[in-house]
Amino acid sequence: MTKKELFNLMTTYNSRSASLKFYDMADRYILTIGDHHFDLNDHTAENLIADLKDNTFATITDHNRHKSAKITK
Hints:
Blueprint: H1 3-12, E1 17-23, E2 28-33, E3 36-40, H2 42-52, E4 58-63, E5 66-72
Antiparallel strand pairs: 1-2, 1-5, 2-3, 4-5
């Protein structure tokens, strides 16, 4: 998933925010956009977080030894 795909999903679901976090209980990254949830594999999620690192719409933090992102537009 790319930044562009993420922002397109946010537009599709009419959401101004999204979050991407690693959930220990699920042992995976989950992208949440409004009421919609998408499982992402580690590689895809880590690449998306790296791609968002310098984006003004994204805040990157550490969450349980994994990077997480909060995206607002």
